[in-house]
Amino acid sequence: MKRRSILSAAAAASVALTMGAGAAKAQDKMTIALIPGLTTDAFYITMQKGAQAAADALGVELVFQGAPDFNPVTQVPVLDAVIARAPDAILIAPTDTTQLIEPLRKAHDAGIPVITVDTFIGTGQYQTGAGDADFPLAYIASDNVLGGKIAARALAASIGGEGKVFVSNVKPGISTTDQREAGFKQAMAEEFPGITVLETQFNDNDANKAASQLQGVLAREPDLKGVFGANLFSALGAANGVQQAGQSGVVKVVAFDAPGSIVDNLNTGLVDVAIAQHPAEIGYFGVVSAYAHLTGNSIPVSIGTGFTIITKDNVGDPEVAKYIYSE
Ligand code: T6T
Fold it and tell me: Do 106 and 21 share a domain, yes or no?
């Protein structure tokens, strides 16, 4: 009898605890973490704004936590700290296709759904049952191969279809910039036989390094016609290098990404074309997708967002200028 009453008291306490936890949970806001490639990049700041807009609309708490540079060595500890806080879902721009697989698997094994935004792990083919990196639920990003092809066509048009060009890029192993370079080279090879693509210069996301590399290439190849800057810092640096060499408007620059400074660069003719991604859209649909999954809905495994091509001629149009990134 005594034993029975202790058991039933324990059972009652456990029910009360469960109900208490449930009631507390119902009042708690759902928490979605967004881990960018780095925190001080206008691209990810704009993505955060889009994510926040969706979070506000859905009554979700958004946590934005990242590292100061684009590097798996600094991103993984941030991810570990986020996993320890047990958010309801993680949105992340992984900084390396292979080095983030195992760290992200920890989140997956802990029951935290993972969606990658901007960049992917593995091949970016998720939920296939194949390979060791198919566990994220979805990938939301620009079509970066297409972006590279658009850049090639724009640069080819700027230089009249002939001459030497090169790609200023970050480092191998980043899905987005690898795909842009691949798309650029593919379009050049297939569509512009008069153009020679020189060896890619890798700048580690350092605009100063990209500027001095541009000048190094120009010293070796004085008839250089153009450069494709494959992300914000590569493009900014390559354009600065062209300017420092006194070659503004002579060596043509096609820039991926559209920070505020691109407006001046387009207007002065230092940059011919800027390919703006739609990072706010990526962040918005990242949060909406996580929310849909967490509330029992199925979600698309891949969502592609668009580009806006910005030139001197259209940068004054508010419908175009709205795609310039927030700082
Ligand atoms: O180009 C974006 C992003 O898409 C890429 O993955 C990394 O670089 C940027 O953040 C721009 O700096």
Answer: yes
